[in-house]
Amino acid sequence: MALLITDECINCDVCEPACPNEAISEGDDIYVIDPDLCTECVGHFDEPQCVVICPVDCIPHDPNHVETESDLMSKYKRITGQ
User: Fold this and answer.
1) For the chain, N or C: smaller number of CB within 10 Å?
2) Which SS3 state, helix, strand or coil, does residue 48 take?
3) Residue 33, strand partner residues
4) Quick check: 14 and 53 in contact, CB under 8 A?
5) How far apart are CA 17 and CA 25, in angstroms?
6) Are 15 and 53 in contact (CB under 8 A)?
7) Among 23, 18, 73, which Cα is nearest to 51's?
8) Rounded Cα distance, 28 and 79, in Å
9) pLDDT string in tens for the chain (82-residue length)
10) Contact present, 74 and 42 (Cβ < 8 Å)
């Protein structure tokens, strides 16, 4: 699954630079994750860096973008060209 930033986000800006795919950007009110770029850090790290670094625990899985580990790896390869 891609990840999703909920409205509990405090706009602290720690998640955006932590994302290796540049999937996180500043939205109108809170930061947002582009599901087309989010691989949950598969291919880069063992766990999603935004989730690890988030001080308010507001980044759950996005139920509208269900993906398997294989799907996420395929997306990683497409994004990185590997």
Assistant:
1) C
2) coil
3) 24
4) yes
5) 9
6) yes
7) 18
8) 25
9) 799 999 999 999 999 999 999 999 999 999 999 999 999 999 999 999 999 999 999 999 999 999 999 999 999 999 999 8
10) no
Full 3-state SS string of the chain = CCECCCCCCCCCCCHHHHCCCCCEEECCCCEEECCCCCCCCCCCCCCCHHHHHCCCCCCCECCCCCCCHHHHHHHHHHHHCC
The kind and range of the H/E element at 68 are: none
Cα 64 from chain centre:
14
Phi, psi of 55 (to 5 degrees): -80, -10
Q: How far apart, in whole angstroms, are the C-alpha atoms of residue 8 and residue 16?
A: 16
For residue 31, what are the β-bridge partners? 26
Phi, psi angles (nearest 5°) of residue 32: -130, 155
Name the token pair of 11. 């706009």
Cα–Cα dist 78/63, whole Å:
22
